[in-house]
Design brief:
With about 260 residues, this protein is of the alpha/beta class. It has a single domain, classed as 2-enoyl-CoA Hydratase, Chain A, domain 1 (Alpha-Beta Complex), CATH 3.90.226. About 45% of the residues lie in helices and about 15% in strands. It is built from 10 helices and 9 strands. The strands form 2 sheets. Strands 1-2-3-4-6-9 form a 6-stranded mixed sheet, with helices on both faces. The protein has a 3-stranded mixed sheet with strand order 5-7-8. Strand 3, helix 2 and strand 4 form a beta-alpha-beta unit. Helix 1 packs parallel to helix 2, helix 4 crosses helix 5 and helix 4 crosses helix 9. The model has no long low-confidence stretch (mean pLDDT about 95).
């Protein structure tokens, strides 16, 4: 089964592979892509034939985050915005989630990894949480998950500097479980997902519920704080300058707003 923007493949072992599928845009996500990935995760949760889930990106990259040239984001049908719809589905997933990451993992491409149970990265990976340099705040509960996973000081440094993280640093900080050569990372992640899938799904799901239970309310609260922060800053002068600079391939000038 597949959609144009999120390919899904369920193998005989019970591993559902979800592939973000905009390789020509380095798997940058617009409203339709967020919705497609969310639908794939909802299917993974409801389908009894799915034991584990593997998330990856088509082509050479995992995801370059929000498509700034076509962000979308409005619900349009009275439902939640597409990004929130997708995050609801990811947070609701009670089955093990493995990620295979190579190339760029920017914005959502990095923050989603905090919600994955096992993360394998390729040696080419370059991660970044570009919220300060876009005049915005964190997303996907990263204001809670990043300090939880990598520590308060490390998270503050990455968020306030919008610094890049390579494969070695990702493993050191605990963002990634292990690093492999790019041509091995998907195979290794698939093998690990299949290893998990051999066990009773009831056991896997019950353990994941336990692992996530202590953080569920904090994740929900963090997402609410982030939504309020995004509503406050999105479309503001600094954010407009950041997007204009990105599209114009120039360095943004934020000092003009300090007068």
């Amino acid at each position: 089964m597949s959609t144009a923007l999120a390919l899904t493949d369920l193998d005989e072992a019970g591993v559902l592979t979800i592939t973000m599928n905009r390789p020509e845009r380095r798997n940058a996500m617009n409203a339709d892509a967020f919705r497609a990935v969310g639908e794939a995760f909802a299917r993974a949760q409801s389908d009894p034939g799915v034991a584990t889930v593997l998330l990856t990106g088509a082509g050479e990259d995992f995801s370059s985050g929000l498509d700034l040239t076509s962000p979308g984001g409005a619900a349009g049908d009275g439902g939640p915005p597409p990004f929130e719809f997708m995050m609801d589905a990811i947070c609701a997933l009670e089955k093990p989630l493995v990620a295979a990451v190579r190339g760029c993992a920017i914005g959502y491409g990095m923050t989603v990894l905090f919600h994955c149970d096992v993360v394998y990265v390729g040696e080419s990976v370059r991660m970044r949480m570009p919220f300060a340099n876009l005049g915005l705040v964190t997303e996907a509960a990263a204001c809670y998950m990043a300090p939880l996973v990598i520590g308060q000081k490390q998270a503050a440094e990455l968020l306030f500097t919008a610094d890049w993280v390579d494969a070695a640093r990702a493993v050191e900080y605990g963002i990634a479980t292990r690093a492999y050569a790019d041509d091995r990372v998907l195979a290794e992640a698939t093998d690990k997902a299949r290893q998990m899938a051999q066990w009773p799904t009831s056991s896997l799901m019950e353990m994941k519920r336990m692992l996530k239970s202590f953080h569920r309310e904090n994740v929900r609260a963090a997402r609410a704080l982030e939504s309020a922060g995004m509503a406050k800053l999105f479309g503001g002068p600094e954010n407009k300058e950041a997007i204009a600079a990105f599209i114009g391939k120039r360095k943004p000038d934020f000092r003009q707003f300090r007068k």
